[in-house]
Amino acid sequence: MSTTTVNGVRLRYDVQGDGPPLLLIAGLGLSSLAWAAAVPRLREGFTVITFDNRGTGLSEVPPGPYPIDTLGDDAAALVEHLGVGPVSAVGWSLGGSVLQSMLVRHGDVLSKAVLLNAFPSYTGVQDAWLDAGLALRRAGVDPVAIGIHGMPWAFTPRLLADHAATEAQAELARKDPHPTTLAGFEAQAAGLRVYDSRADLPSATTPTLVLAGAEDVLTPVAQSVEMAELLPHGTLQVLPRGGHGMLVEYLDDTLAAIIAYLGADPRARPRPVGPVGPVGAVGAAAEPVGTAVAVIGAGRPVVLPDDLADTPQVR
Q: What span, in angstroms and rounded, lies between the C-alpha atoms of 142 and 176?
């Protein structure tokens, strides 16, 4: 665990593993602990760089708001400080917005990118979801209750129907040694809700995987389709199972897709990541449901579950 000051802010970061450098960018209000389950696997083949975005964890909490471009500048400056660029990067949710900013403004520090459960701009539903989350935090509601209230937006009925597992997942918020402050959450939220990458994505040159879960209701597949269509070197892959929190609920399948893309020719057709085995504990593989391959835009490959292959939003 180390700290450095870049772009005028003190950031906490960690570097683990051996191999090509891989930067992981966490979501709204989350510190680098969001990647705790993924890092042990990823560091087997990558030099994994995690960090706390400004406003979270052990990083500084300067006055907000935090524009997404500022968060992208922070991440790019960290890569330059470490002298490891160009790097592969994965951005999850808000981290996907930060990574989109980097694709547009700092493409020179990136070799490949994965936009995980990301979106190009907020919808009215996402605005309302954020308003509710802010209201609960400002009212001082218990963080576990806030977590349970928000879990239907992140997880599938497979997890939610198991109340013991749901409660255990929510209890992790109470165990966070460095929880995000209200000020930090508000500052990130203010920048996120006004960010819109759509006009700028066509200028990005970095090969990018847009990775989504078919069951994501917070950042629906249609938003991933939109980003993949706008990115000149974008590839869309939709896993048959998993919502916004699929990195937690379907860890094996999500990491398999990420590793397959980062370890292969980024312009080659990605192989469908077929779920294997029965439904088990959170993080195990999904039920077999099949995959279909379609083509999007200028011959770019798309991997879809069978039940999405004929929907109008995929073209």
A: 13
How many CA atoms lie less than 13 Å away from 90 in the CB half-sphere? Answer: 27
Q: Among 131, 77, 80, 72, which Cα is nearest to 99's?
A: 72
Q: At what angle do helices 68-82 and 182-192 cross, to 10 degrees?
A: 110
Per-residue pLDDT tens digits for 153-191: 999 999 999 999 999 999 988 889 999 999 999 999 999
d(CA 143, CA 146): 5
Residue 74 identity (one-letter amino acid):
D
User: What does the block give as tokens for 306?
Assistant: 């069978």
Residue 93's region, left for phi above 0, alpha for psi from -120 to 50, else beta, is left
Between the CA atoms of 232, 87, 30 and 56, what dihedral angle is there, to the nearest 10 degrees? -120
Question: Could you tell me which of 164, 200, 176 has the C-alpha nearest to residue 69?
Answer: 200
pLDDT in tens, 98-119: 999 999 999 999 999 999 999 9
Determine contact, residues 208/115, Cβ cutoff 8 Å. yes
Q: Between the CA atoms of 187, 69, 267 and 306, what dihedral angle is there, to the nearest 10 degrees? A: 30
CA 101 from chain centre, in angstroms, equals: 14
Please give the C-alpha separations between residue 83 and each of 8, 21, 77, 78, in angstroms, as whole numbers. Answer: 18, 10, 10, 9
Distance CA 251, CA 159 (A): 13
- Write out the H or E segment, with its range, that includes residue 292: strand 291-296
Spell out the alpha helix ranges (H) of the chain.
39-42, 68-82, 94-105, 124-138, 143-150, 157-160, 163-175, 182-192, 221-230, 246-249, 251-262
Opening angle at CA 26, ends 22 and 32, nearest 5: 80
